[in-house]
Amino acid sequence: MQKGFFKQFILICQFEIKRGFTTQKGLLVLVTFGIVWSVILLYPICFAAELVRQEKGWAQDFSFFEFFGLGAIHQWPIPEFGVLWQLALILFPMLSITLAADQTCSDRERGTLRFIVLRSSRDSIFFGRFAGVLVIQALLICVATISTFILVSLRQVELIFSALPSLLAITINLILVILPFTAMMAILSVKVKSARQATIWAILIWTFLAGIISGFAEYLPMLSYFKILVPGYQLSDLAQLSGWQTLQLSYIPILQGFFLLMLGRWIMVRQAL
Predict the structure, then answer these.
(1) Are 132 and 44 in contact (CB under 8 A)?
(2) Quick one: DSSP state of residue 1?
């Protein structure tokens, strides 16, 4: 890494965060997220949490959530967090694919990336843009978890202190979950010409890679170990855990993110601008 890397890294990271909150495109994403999450918070989470509380008082074995494979919600002491956990494991990885798609591709297509490289190293651009997008997503995750925490507090103020550990566990885990997805989009952004292409390629690669590995693993069980190459392959197992148990699988997104970032950095250094 070149001299002055960290200074350049911080400046580019700050610029990416500013771009995410001040540009027309960034504001549109934030407003859309705010509206969608408000609807999710006030309807699916409230409704499902109330249903969970009612089921706990029923003297029968049938459970609506067990029927749909969501019985892990009952493991959470606070129903709202159980519902939040299940929804967030689907919502935020998909949001990451969309939000992190345009890290360097648009600048390269416009030709402005060549001028940026004159004053900053490729390493600082690649990692700075990645870090900036990750911070924006982390802030959105905090908005989601804190708003759910406020909802819980309004329902029963006595739950404030008991809800804090769950709040922290979910926030940390969701940031780790989106790490490899953001790194994957950083790689695609280096190679393709637009954010739309990056999003399409991410969905195709994610879908087909998981399908191919799963298909061949039925005939050669040893190939099942290659599932670790697929970002988010642990999400189904993660959904069955609760509280701080969810950190048991935290090593998977960390290793995936590290590998993808090193691969993206290698491509970035050799990519023609």
Answers:
(1) no
(2) -
Measured distance between the N- and C-terminal CA atoms of the chain, rounded to whole angstroms: 19
pLDDT in the model for residue 119: 82
Of 187, 28, 21, 13, the residue nearest 104 (C-alpha): 187
Both structure tokens of 137: 């997503």
Give dist(CA 202, CA 199) in Å, integer: 5
> CA 261, CA 74: separation in Å to the nearest integer?
37
Tens of pLDDT, residue by residue over 15-38, are 889 888 888 888 888 888 989 998
- Site of tokens 């954010």: 195
Two tokens at 13? 């990271």
| Residue type at position 205 | I
User: What are residue 58's phi and psi, to 5 degrees?
Assistant: -80, 140
pTM: 0.89
Decide if 254 contacts 173 (C-beta within 8 A): no
Copy the structure tokens of residue 38: 């408000």
In this structure, what DSSP letter does residue 229 have? Answer: G
SS3 letters for 91-131? HHHHHHHHHCCCCCHHHHHHCHHHHHHHHCCHHHHHHHHHH
Distance between CA atoms of residues 111 and 114, nearest Å? 6
